[in-house]
Design goal:
The complex is a heterodimer.
Chain A lengths: L1 E8 L14 E8 L4 E5 L6 H9 L6 E6 L2 E2 L5 H7 E4 L11 H6 L3 H4 L7 H13 L15 H13 L5 E5 L7 H18 L2 E5 L3 H7 L2 E6 L2 E7 H4 L2 H8 L1 E7 L6 E8 L2
Parallel strand pairs in A: 3-8, 3-9, 6-7, 7-8
Antiparallel strand pairs in A: 1-2, 1-4, 4-5, 9-10, 11-12
Helix pairs in contact in A: 5-6
Chain B lengths: L1 H21 L10 H4 L10 H35 L11 H14 L5 E2 L2 E2 H24 L5 H25 L2 H11 L9 H18 L2 H7 L3 H6 L4 H23 L5 H13 L3 H25 L8 H21 L1
Classes of the chains: A alpha/beta, B mainly alpha.
Chain lengths: 266, 332
């Protein structure tokens, strides 16, 4: 449903010495409806930029991004937000919003700047809290929540947007193992129960192996490999991507691939 | 949400109406409200009504306009920059308005055009100019506005403009320096309705801009990227917000001088009462800011009567400690 066709992108007005530095070069990929696609790549490989291009908050310099065949540029921001929700890497609240207030902000694309949210919106927000296991935090102040709790509230807020697609930028970065596991389980459940299409960027290869049906490997702004997780997550691709020799094997009990880094590649 | 909105606006509205009615009754000549609205007397014979409407109400109305203008600017700057310290003062906007007025006074530009003094126009131009400099500087560095850059640029520009102002004052003669000093401390003794009417034009434009902002500011306060992904046109909002807030500041400073601290204390007090939602914070700040400055001005003109204190001294003297108390009470 989401398609990227030979997209090239570079930030303007950055470091003058790098004026022609392109963050993404000739990137093409396809996100099928109902899939979970992982974006892997070292720091600076263009993952966040790709997420922003998919979200339509950045426009490609050349090439195009379409959702269900419609170019993102031809949709208004609010139309786009009704189809696609974004969970940023980190969310800081300047003011003292309660958890439910944050989740209700997800209703903005449906309400616009002047409508007040009604019982219907509140029901959707409560449902999103329940789905992320945060119903108990409804009245809690967002800034008093822990990192993992905050992340789940932000995901609930994205859920309240009631879109078919959710883009997540490193959703488990800076979370401990327990919360990492919980977020991964939550995303898998959303995909299974609600059919939400997910695009997840991450540095965690094992998370990607557990969660994602397909992977896109990005290296220096180009697609190194793109396909089913089992085909793409290989020793040679990991070496090429990170310069690390790793053992990739199917875990006998977990049933999915696991990656054990062994040494820096020579 | 609808109920919270109605309750909040009604409560703060009642407070504002109350202060607007009570404040003009207090003063050296005691008057009674029943006598003011006594319909059996003609206005020419009704001394109470004359004192109420001619000598005291303009001042109260001026206080209301200045108070709500500065408070709303504070709310908008804080949300837009996602920084609780942002206000017309810290962004250099108030300093620009002040410099404009100092220049007008010192160089005897305080002639009237169509009954309106040039001083407000100069201070209004100053506020817009300062914002343009600050905004331009922060834009030049990178694409989009970084709030830290904007705030740092604001502080630097404020310091520079204040220094230019002091330089001009230092070179000016003593009478002018006294007049600018008096003006700098903030005074709402407007004398008639003419300056109020003049300030109402930019203030109305600014308030129209503010009216489009509440929900959008909620989303922007959570991050520009996130707001954009939810369908907010961040760039357009930023433009409306910055222009409206500097117009409101310019109009307020032109009317009452740089009344310190209102733009920081009122928004934070209001947030402590109504929460973070800008659909409540914005109207409540406008109303509470009006009442706050009316009461401060009432104290300024009665506390040491017959001597009148500049209202800026009162806002800072009451506001500072009260604000600190609230801040630390909240931490524990």
């Amino acid at each position: 449903m989401l398609r990227v066709d030979s997209v090239t992108f570079g930030y303007r007005g950055g470091d003058p010495a790098q004026k022609d530095h392109l963050v993404l070069q000739d990137v093409s990929l396809h996100v099928p409806r109902g899939s979970i696609v992982g974006l892997l790549g070292p720091n600076g490989s263009g993952k966040t930029t790709l997420i922003r291009l998919l979200a339509g908050t950045l426009r490609p310099a050349s090439g195009r991004v379409t959702i269900d065949g419609v170019p993102l540029g031809s949709l208004s921001r609010r139309e786009l937000a009704r189809r696609m929700a974004v969970v940023p890497q980190e969310t800081q609240s300047t003011f003292d919003f309660s958890a439910i207030e944050i989740v209700l902000m997800g209703r903005y694309p449906h309400l616009g700047p002047f409508a007040l949210e009604g019982a219907h919106d509140l029901a959707i927000a409560r449902d999103a809290l329940a789905a992320t296991g945060t119903a108990a935090f409804e009245a809690r102040r967002f800034i008093t929540l822990s990192g993992g709790e905050k992340q789940r509230i932000v995901i609930a807020s994205a859920l309240a947007q009631a879109s078919d697609v959710m883009l997540l930028d490193e959703p488990t970065a800076s979370l401990d193992l327990g919360f990492q596991f919980e977020i991964a389980a939550l995303l898998a459940r959303l995909n299974r129960e609600r059919g939400t299409t997910l695009v997840v960027s991450t540095h965690d290869l094992n998370l990607a192996a557990t969660l994602c049906s397909e992977l896109v490997l990005l290296k220096a702004g180009r697609v190194l490999a793109h396909g089913p997780t089992d085909d793409v997550l290989t020793t040679s691709n990991i070496r090429s991507l990170y310069g690390i020799d790793a053992d990739v094997a199917r875990h006998p009990r977990a049933g999915h691939l696991t990656v054990v880094p062994l040494a820096r590649a020579e | 949400m609808r109920r919270r909105f109605v309750v909040t606006v009604t409560a703060f509205g009642a407070l504002t109406v109350l202060t607007c009615l009570v404040a003009p009754l207090v003063g050296s000549t005691p008057i009674r409200l029943s006598q003011v609205f006594n319909r059996t007397l003609s206005f020419a014979d009704n001394v109470d009504a004359q004192v109420f409407f001619i000598s005291r109400l303009p001042r109260v109305v001026a206080a209301a306009i200045v108070g709500s203008g500065l408070s709303l600017s504070g709310v908008v700057f804080q949300a837009l920059l996602r920084n609780p310290l942002a206000s017309s003062d810290t962004l250099g906007v108030a300093a620009g308005a002040t410099l404009g007025a100092i220049l007008a006074i010192t160089f005897h530009l305080d002639i009237a055009i169509a009954g309106v003094s040039v001083v407000p126009l100069a201070s209004f131009a100053g506020s817009l100019g300062a914002l343009a400099i600050v905004y331009g500087l922060s834009m030049a560095r990178r694409r989009g506005t970084s709030s830290t850059m904007l705030l740092l640029a604001g502080i630097a520009v404020a310091a520079l403009l204040a220094a230019v102002g002091r330089f001009v004052q230092y070179l000016g003669d003593l009478t002018e320096t006294f007049r600018t000093m008096q003006w700098l401390m903030g005074s709402l003794d407007v004398g008639s309705y003419a300056p109020i009417v003049a300030a109402l034009v930019p203030m109305t434009i600014a308030f129209t801009g503010f009216a489009t902002l509440p929900r959008v500011l909620d989303l922007i306060s959570m991050g520009e990227e996130a707001a954009e992904a939810r369908g907010v046109n961040v760039e357009r909002t930023e433009r409306i917000a910055l222009v409206s807030a500097s117009m409101a500041t310019g109009a307020a400073v032109s009317l009452g001088g740089p009344v310190l601290f209102v733009g920081i204390i009122v928004p934070h007090l209001v947030r402590l009462i109504v929460g973070a939602d800008h659909r409540l914070v914005l109207p409540a700040s406008a109303l509470f800011g009006a009442s706050f400055l009316i009461v401060c001005d009432l104290i300024a003109r009665t506390a040491f009567a017959p001597v009148e204190l500049p209202v800026g001294i009162i806002t800072a003297m009451i506001g500072g400690p009260f604000f600190l108390w609230l801040l630390f009470r909240r931490v524990h």
